[in-house]
Amino acid sequence: MNDQTFESIIFTTENFQSNFSSRSECISCTFSNLDLTGFDFSNTKFIECFFDHCNLSNALFNKSVLRGCEFTNSKLIGIDWTQTASLIYPKFAACSMDYGIFNSMALKKTVFGNCSLKEVDFYSAKLNESDFSGSDLFGANFSRADLSECDFRGARNYSIEPIYTIVTKARFSLPEAIALLKSFDVVID
Fold it and tell me: What is the phi/psi pair of residue 181, to 5°?
């Protein structure tokens, strides 16, 4: 049972602490310029909400529902997204998402545009048709993931092993695409 339902509310520093409680339902709400580091959003439902310039690092989303939410210019560092009840069609633009965990999640058509995704765990995730364009993927783990039809154009610092990862019809750009040959132990002159 949710504590409160918020619809089309714009949450800012002035009204967030006094009005918001976890276990709420938020529909078409905007969260703007908030420092929510470590905030507990457990059992909260977010439907088509927008987070702009927020710091959600180490926030907890245990058993939360996020459906059609957009995050822009926000910090989402160290979040274990596998604890959500559902994460459906999220869009991340220009976000810092380092050290996040998405392993074994179904995230078809997810947008991670121009994000920092350093050391993110995508092990065995179903990411087909997702967009990683312009993102920094240094140390990201894509082992056993489905990356079919993903867009990696302009992405950098990725290490994807085609032997252990599905990359059918994924799009890459040069010179970064040379990294796909690393696991084959070939010499390129």
Answer: -85, -10
